Amino acid sequence: MPDESSVDRHNVAERLTLAISRLNRRIRPVGDELSNGVLSALSSVKNAGPLRPSDLARIENVAAPTMTRIVADLENRGLVEREPDPADGRSFLLRASNSGIATIDQARMARTTRVLQLLADQSDEDIARLAHALPALEAAAANRA
């Protein structure tokens, strides 16, 4: 294993970008599965809700018009429910419906299955190395800089 001070961060970032891009293309939604953006928004509603659409847009780091389209899609699919905002009569809050929660679980299972298929030929040693890298990847993914 290389000394941490000798690691070329640019090279790591470049290789990681390429690997993530390729993996993402291989596990992208198929058929009528939710897109990554819509699934992420629904997951945020489930985990942090009930939320105003403006708060959801901020969490998801998208513009208000984009979130308006996402919310409309989620509502049309019956995956979120509106409720009045008790603090602001002009606004509403979003809550994940039972169908929305089930859809999140199904989408995660489908994507996990595709990743398992991609990893099927990897050695136990390679899987252990991936497992060792997960905390750093999860921390980078959670960073909202």
Short description:
InterPro entries: HTH-type_Bedaq_tolerance, HTH_MarR-typ, Tscrpt_reg_MarR-type_CS, WH-like_DNA-bd_sf, WH_DNA-bd_sf. Pfam families: MarR (PF01047). By secondary structure, this protein is mainly α.
Number of helices, where a helix is a run of at least 4 consecutive DSSP H or I residues:
6
Average pLDDT metric: 92
| CATH H level, superfamily name | Winged helix-like DNA-binding domain superfamily/Winged helix DNA-binding domain
- Residue fraction in strands: 5-15%
- Secondary structure: helix percent: 55-70%
Annotated CATH topology? Arc Repressor Mutant, subunit A
Q: What is the number of strand segments?
A: 2
Q: Roughly how many Å apart are the termini?
A: 29 Å
| Integer count of domains | 1
Q: How many strands, what sense, and barrel or not for the largest sheet?
A: 2 strands, antiparallel
Q: What is the highest CATH level, the class? A: Mainly Alpha
Which stretches of 5+ consecutive residues score pLDDT under 50? Answer: none
Proper CATH architecture: Orthogonal Bundle
Rg on CA atoms, Å: 19 Å
List the helices and strands in order. Answer: HHHHEEHH
Helix/strand-derived category reads mainly alpha
Query: How would you write the strand order of the largest sheet?
Result: 1-2
Principal-axis shape equals elongated
